[in-house]
Structure to design on (841 residues):
């Protein structure tokens, strides 16, 4: 345990010291003698970002509900804090009891974003834990990882001891149970891994060997022993109303990214956008009932005192009983001045009415995500949104008094042409026109359109997983072109860092050979790569050179259907043949209907029955 | 209008929480404790409560005050108990009573008393420490440089802080720590932060560590130093 006195020496020297004190409302405090297993939930970014993540709150409470297990939290210290810690030799510590991470049994990282991988290494380094699993000894904690990026675990294969693939609620408890038995029998590290390797959803990378072909593609992945599974199947919670639910959340002292109650209304998405990884890996859709949600919302507000509830899902409009849910939540909480927010809402007239009802026209901005500028390209990516939809929604919104609109696009999507890029400009200009087309007297506020274009990153388990990403030069050329043609005082145009997206593409589809690059980049000083002002692209370029790994091989190369992909050993339920079919349909510009309209046979219903389909 | 005047303390880790964050902490605690707080009108309703003064990050206190407007009357004892049940460790309601005072707390505060713990430097002596403090107190004027940001530029000016120091005494001397007690002007008509007093003392020759110190506020006073 690190003495508070020691921390007092540095806390006033850093920005936002409350990030490092713990002690918030609704944390768990356990007595030393009641603790058998210590688990550190590690979020590889700062407190403000990590505390906004729903999964943290779920697993924290789930684990702490168990007798004998104490789950504490740890986040990446911001650079000012890291500097102070290194100066006086304070190892990375948990927030609850200020225990050095090295003294835990498990350190569980959640992988939300590829660009936080170097933070994982930095956190291990700050804890004096070996970066590579092969260098850890019997006394070290197990480094485990889960979350959406774990669906392609290979880039972290040398670092993480084992992965949990899928929704972790059940799997994590199975692991904890095994660990308890292990402690009694005093098994070795290796023996413990052997004992859990057959639990569904667990992947132990060191138990597999990968053979490569001469062209650097994978020949095959071989389990080192016969009983190691050759396919790892994701695990999902079939019935959310019966799954462990969150009825209290830690209330942060400082403002976090999403500083409110998060109500998870369903998991999965029925839309089938072809670039979207979440839409594929979280299938099938599973909803919570309105009754259940109301009950949870009451408990969460009671225990946190938050002033806002946010409905969380991939696509809020698709909740089957949304109107009823919203009305009942509002009835329940109006008295207490509790606000509702509905992110990821498709902005049609029905939703706008709902939002108006909720906000009584508080002029927060509206967000639309057409993703592509032309109808042709929107059909290619299966984004079921038409120009008419968008323009009509904007017209309605302007009439209701909105004047701030955000438009999200991607550049570098498969088959993109110059016309598609021009389409981005045209759409933004049409939205502008729509505002000034209103009768003068109903025009409210000062129009502001923010158009953002991010760089497309092909992700594993999407119909676009075989596509090459645009090269850096192509991205930059397109960004320049858009900057040149979008010239209007009312329209702001934002681009994303192409270099960041390029690295994202390398790690989104990398194999285990990129582990080395990660370690080198970290040693060169890379961390907080997702933060623009911290990103050191040159160090990454050096790391690729030092390790002899060509990033273009992963980012910019087209793969054939016959190629063994690094993540092929993971079974997400959606079949590869469906992904191929979708990719082919996209080339033909054919759209695939929403699962609510008709089933396209993605394969998920075979093993993962339980959702809407 | 029902106005509850509340005294509370802030200690341990809560000293690392900023003034703004403390406001949010109370806002949420009111809701957890079911306190019928009055809300402002408009799009973004806010609970109506205000603090006497802001306590700087890093300081602890036994004497913080706030006024809360209520929609309906609740017994002050019940308020105190219900709030303390839901507040995190480090914030505690000490006392509450209804007041008819129309003036805001902010406008009636005139001074605060502090306890300051300092660490003497190795080559210092008890004698020199006492002498420096006594010389300091005998001075008619003490100037320090205050810097202010104005339109992106830093403007520095010399201010006399002597008139804002009402009391200053050494109440304990040990070879590894010195404890001072002081009464400083506080409020909208003039304000002296204890950190600035330490800076001035060091400038005048007090041999103590300039980064390692602790400040604790004891209480706030109106012109009539007794509360109420
Ligand atoms: S099985 Fe059919 S309805 Fe269900 S997710 Fe797959 S495509 Fe959609």
């Amino acid at each position: 345990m690190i003495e508070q006195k020691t921390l007092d020496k540095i806390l006033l020297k850093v920005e936002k010291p409350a990030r490092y004190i713990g002690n918030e409302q609704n944390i768990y405090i356990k007595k030393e003698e009641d603790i058998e297993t210590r688990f550190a939930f590690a979020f590889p970014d700062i407190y403000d970002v990590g505390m906004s993540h729903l999964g943290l709150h779920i697993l924290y409470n789930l684990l702490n509900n168990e007798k004998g297990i104490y789950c504490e939290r740890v986040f990446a210290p911001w650079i000012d804090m890291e500097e102070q810690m290194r100066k006086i030799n304070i190892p990375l510590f948990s927030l609850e009891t200020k225990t050095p991470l090295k003294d835990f049994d498990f350190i569980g990282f959640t992988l939300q974003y590829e660009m936080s991988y170097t933070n994982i290494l930095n956190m291990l380094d700050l804890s004096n834990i070996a970066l590579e699993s092969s260098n850890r000894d019997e006394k070290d904690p197990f480094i485990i990882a889960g979350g959406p990026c774990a669906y392609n675990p290979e880039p972290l294969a040398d670092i993480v001891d084992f992965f949990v693939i899928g929704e972790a609620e059940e799997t994590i408890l199975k692991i904890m149970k095994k660990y308890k038995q292990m402690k009694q029998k005093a098994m070795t590290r290796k023996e413990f891994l052997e004992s859990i390797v057959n639990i569904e959803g667990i992947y132990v990378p060191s138990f597999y060997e990968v053979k490569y072909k001469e062209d650097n593609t994978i020949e095959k992945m071989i389990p080192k022993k016969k009983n190691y599974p050759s396919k790892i199947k994701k695990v999902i919670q079939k019935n959310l109303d019966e799954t462990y639910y969150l009825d209290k959340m830690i209330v942060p002292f400082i403002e976090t990214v999403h500083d409110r109650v998060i109500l998870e209304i369903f998991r999965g998405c029925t839309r089938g956008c072809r670039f979207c990884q979440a839409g594929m890996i979280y299938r099938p859709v599973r909803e919570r009932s309105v009754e259940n949600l109301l009950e949870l919302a009451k408990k969460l507000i009671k225990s946190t005192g938050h002033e806002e509830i946010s409905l969380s899902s991939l696509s809020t409009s698709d909740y089957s009983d949304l109107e009823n849910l919203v009305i009942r939540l509002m009835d329940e909480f109006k008295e207490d001045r509790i606000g509702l927010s509905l992110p990821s809402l498709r902005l049609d007239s029905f939703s706008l009415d709902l939002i108006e009802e909720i906000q009584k026209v508080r002029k927060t901005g509206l967000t639309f995500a057409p993703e592509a500028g032309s109808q042709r390209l929107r059909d290619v990516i299966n984004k079921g949104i038409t120009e008419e939809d968008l323009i009509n929604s904007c017209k309605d919104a302007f009439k209701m008094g909105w004047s701030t609109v955000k438009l999200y696009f991607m550049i570098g999507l498969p088959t993109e042409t110059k016309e598609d890029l021009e389409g981005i400009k045209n759409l933004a200009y049409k939205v502008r026109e729509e505002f000034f087309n209103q009768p003068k007297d109903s025009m409210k506020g000062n129009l502001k359109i923010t158009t953002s274009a991010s760089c497309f990153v092909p992700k594993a388990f999407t119909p676009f997983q075989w596509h090459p990403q645009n090269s850096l030069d192509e991205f930059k050329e397109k960004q320049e072109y858009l900057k040149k043609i979008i010239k209007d005082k009312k329209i702001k145009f934002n681009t994303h860092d192409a270099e960041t997206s390029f690295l994202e593409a390398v790690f989104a589809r990398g194999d285990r050979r990129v582990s080395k690059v990660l370690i080198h980049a970290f040693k060169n000083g890379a961390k907080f790569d997702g933060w623009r002002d911290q990103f050191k692209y040159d160090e990454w370029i050096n790391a690729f050179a030092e390790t002899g790994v060509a990033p273009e091989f992963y980012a910019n190369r087209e793969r054939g259907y016959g190629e063994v992909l690094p993540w092929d050993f993971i079974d997400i339920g959606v079949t590869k043949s469906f992904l191929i079919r979708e990719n082919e349909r996209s080339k033909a510009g054919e759209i695939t209907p929403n699962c609510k309209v008709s089933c396209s046979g993605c394969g998920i219903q075979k093993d993962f029955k339980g959702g809407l389909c | 209008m029902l106005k509850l005047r509340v005294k509370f303390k802030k200690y341990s880790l809560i000293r690392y929480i900023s003034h703004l964050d403390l406001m949010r902490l109370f806002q949420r605690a009111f809701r957890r404790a079911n306190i019928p707080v009055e809300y402002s009108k408009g799009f973004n309703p806010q609970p109506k409560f205000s603090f006497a003064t802001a306590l700087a990050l890093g300081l602890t206190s036994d004497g913080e005050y706030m006024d809360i407007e209520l929609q309906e009357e609740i017994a002050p004892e019940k308020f105190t108990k219900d709030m303390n049940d839901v507040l995190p460790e480090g914030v505690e309601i000490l006392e509450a009573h209804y007041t008819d005072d129309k003036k805001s707390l902010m406008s009636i505060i005139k001074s605060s008393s502090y306890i300051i713990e300092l660490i003497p430097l190795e080559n210092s002596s008890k004698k020199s420490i006492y002498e420096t403090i006594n010389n300091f107190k005998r001075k008619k004027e003490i100037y320090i440089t205050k810097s202010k940001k104005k339109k992106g530029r830093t403007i520095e000016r010399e201010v006399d802080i002597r008139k804002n120091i009402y009391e200053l005494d050494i109440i304990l001397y040990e070879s590894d720590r010195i404890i001072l007690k002081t009464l400083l002007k506080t409020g909208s008509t003039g304000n002296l932060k204890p950190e600035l007093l330490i800076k001035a003392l060091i400038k005048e020759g007090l041999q103590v560590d300039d980064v390692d110190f602790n400040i604790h506020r004891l209480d706030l006073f109106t012109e009539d130093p007794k509360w109420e």
User: Anything to note?
Assistant: The domain at 237-361 of chain A is CATH 3.30.750.210 (Transcription Regulator spoIIAA).
